[in-house]
Amino acid sequence: MRSDASRNRAAILEAARVLIAGPGELKLSAVAKQAGVGQGTLYRHFTTRDELVAALYAEEIDELVAEARRLLEQHEPLAALERWLARLAAYAQVKRGVIDAVDASAWAEISAETHTKLGQALGALLTAGAAAGVLREDVDPRDVILLSWFLAHVKPEEWDDRVPRLLEVLLAGLRSAR
Q1: Where is the signal peptide (predicted)?
Q2: Beta-carbon neighbour count of residue 148 at 10 Å?
């Protein structure tokens, strides 16, 4: 991909990330305007809204996976998990927009591809924490994914007050009793 095409794609995805977290339906014309590109440019990269949303979702998951590795390299396991869960919470706001933007069949296809990646990243964090003796050994990635689904149900107006408290409760439950 040429550098200008790569920049345009990145700008389109960033515009979609901003707009999808806001109120209302995600409109491709608004994405093009926000990205500073013409509609033709947008359609050369993404022919449908579902295609754009799928690309945004895949990019978010890839960033979460990479973030898990970076955090484990830079922090102790418990701190790495805490920071990763905060990043997951930020991602949940985009995910809520993704779910609202696509129909149920498209969502099933989009999410099926990414659960394995997300589970592997979370597994690395949990394994490192268990090995260090700071996280429970009997919890697997799916347990945490299921527990973190509360993020999809927190209303925007209560997000800032409720989510930090709920993440702390989740982390407390994951800590080792040792």
Answers
A1: none
A2: 18
pLDDT digits (tens, 9 = 90+) for 118-135: 889 999 999 999 999 999
Pick the closest to residue 17 from 80, 69, 93 (CA basis): 93
Mean pLDDT (whole number) for 10-36? 88
Instruction: Report residue 152 as tokens.
Output: 């999809």
Angle at 88 between CA 155 and CA 159, to 5 degrees: 20
**Residue type at 90 in one-letter notation:** A
User: What domains lie within the chain, and their CATH numbers?
Assistant: 1-47 (1.10.10), 54-174 (1.10.357.10)
Among residues 127, 14, 26, 39, which one has the least CA distance to residue 81? 127
% of the chain at pLDDT higher than 70: 87
Give the pLDDT confidence of 62-85 residue by residue, as tens digits: 898 999 999 999 999 999 999 999
Q: Which amino acid is at 148?
A: S
Where do the H-state alpha helices sit in the chain? 3-20, 28-35, 39-45, 49-74, 77-101, 104-131, 141-148, 159-174
Tell me how far apart the alpha carbons of residues 18 and 36 are, in angstroms, rounded to a whole number. 14
Q: How many residues does the chain have?
A: 178
Per the CB < 8 A criterion, the answer to whether 72 and 128 are in contact is yes
